[in-house]
Write a structure and sequence with these properties.
This protein is mainly α. The chain has two domains: 182 residues, Cytochrome Bc1 Complex, Chain D, domain 2 (Orthogonal Bundle), CATH 1.10.760.10; 30 residues. The protein is 53% helix and 12% strand. A two-stranded antiparallel ribbon has the order 1-2. A two-stranded antiparallel ribbon has the order 3-4. It has a two-stranded antiparallel sheet with strand order 5-6. Helix 3 crosses helix 4. It starts with a helix and ends with a helix. The structure holds heme C.
Length: 246
C-alpha cells in the first residue's frame, strides 16, 4: 500500500467515525423545526419569554425597539405586553433579578440568553425545554435529561405538566440512567400544544441570537439573482469572442 493512499484511508476512517459520533450525539435531541420568517410564531415566543423567562434571564444584546421593528409590533404593544421591568423603549432587555441574588438562590446566576441558540443550536434549546422531570434529590425539585443536575427550576411545568423518569435496568457499577420521561400529571396544554409553545419560544431566541439573519437572507436572494444574470451575460460574451477565434 502506498503511503499517500494509506494516509487518506486513515483520514477517511477518522472522518467517518467522527461523523458517526456526532450523529449519535445528535440523535438524543428532537428537531426544533424553527422558521425565523414566521413572525406570528416569534410574537408568541416573545410573549412566552417575557412571561416565563425574563424574570431571571436577560437578552443584553437586544433592545425593545428592535424587537418591535423586527416583529411588526407597535411601541405600545411592546411596552405594555412585553416590558415588565419599566425599562425604556430603547433599552436592552435586562432581567430585574440581580445576578448576585440569583447566584445565592439557585447556586448559579441565570446566564444571558442573547446568544444561547447560536451557542447550543435550536434543537438543544427546544429539547432542553421538554426534558425537565421531577427529582426530589435536587434543591429545586427538578432535573433535566439534556442538562443533568441543572440549577434552573422548571418555569413551564403548569403548561407541560409534570414528567417523571423511567430508569433503564440497573447495571452494577453504573449510575442509574433515565431511559425516558413520562407525563405523570398532565398540564394546561396538550403535548402537541406544548411542543408548539416551546418551538415558538426557541424561534424567538434564535432570532435574538442573530437578528441580522432576517435581513441577510433577503439580501442573499438579490445576490444570487445578480450572480445568475451576470453568469448569463458572461456566457454570451464568451460566445461572442470565441466566434472570431474558430
Ligand atoms: C427562576 C429563575 C429562572 C427562570 C424563570 C428561568 N431560568 Fe433558565 N436558568 C436559570 C438558571 C439559574 C440557569 C443556570 C443553570 C445551570 O447552569 O445549572 C438557567 C439556565 C438556562 C439555560 C441553559 C443555559 C446554558 O448553560 O447553556 C437555558 C437555555 C435557559 N435557562 C432557558 C430558559 C427559558 C427559555 C426560560 C423561560 C421558559 C427560563 N430559562 C426561565 C434560571 C431561570
Amino acid at each position: 500500500m502506498t503511503k499517500p493512499f494509506f494516509c487518506s484511508l486513515v483520514l477517511a476512517l477518522g472522518l467517518l467515525t467522527a461523523t458517526a459520533a456526532l450523529a449519535a450525539e445528535g440523535d438524543a435531541l428532537d428537531a426544533a423545526h424553527t422558521n425565523i420568517h414566521d413572525v406570528a410564531a416569534m410574537q408568541r415566543g416573545a410573549r412566552t419569554f417575557f412571561n416565563y423567562c425574563a424574570g431571571c434571564h436577560s437578552l443584553e444584546y437586544m433592545r425593545y425597539s428592535r424587537i418591535a421593528q423586527d416583529l411588526d409590533l407597535s411601541e405600545a404593544q411592546v411596552m405594555t405586553n412585553l416590558d415588565m421591568t419599566g425599562d425604556k423603549f430603547g433599552d436592552p432587555v435586562i432581567s430585574a433579578m440581580p445576578a448576585a441574588d440569583a447566584a445565592k438562590w439557585f447556586g448559579k446566576a441565570p446566564p444571558d440568553l442573547s446568544l444561547e441558540v447560536a451557542a447550543k443550536g435550536p434543537d438543544w434549546v427546544y429539547t432542553y425545554l421538554k426534558s425537565f422531570y421531577v427529582d426530589p434529590t435536587r434543591p429545586t425539585g427538578w432535573n433535566n435529561t439534556v442538562f443533568p443536575n441543572v440549577s434552573m427550576p422548571f418555569p413551564l411545568w403548569e403548561l407541560q405538566g409534570v414528567q417523571t423518569p423511567v430508569y433503564a435496568p440497573a447495571r452494577p457499577g453504573h449510575d442509574p440512567r433515565v431511559e425516558k420521561l413520562q407525563l405523570g400529571q398532565p398540564g394546561l396544554q396538550t403535548p402537541a400544544q406544548y411542543d408548539r409553545t416551546i418551538r415558538d419560544l426557541t424561534t424567538f431566541l434564535q432570532y435574538v441570537s442573530e437578528p441580522a439573519a432576517l435581513q441577510r437572507e433577503r439580501i442573499g436572494v438579490w445576490v444570487l439573482l445578480y450572480l445568475a444574470v451576470f453568469t448569463f451575460l458572461a456566457l454570451l460574451l464568451k460566445r461572442e469572442y470565441w466566434k472570431d477565434v474558430h
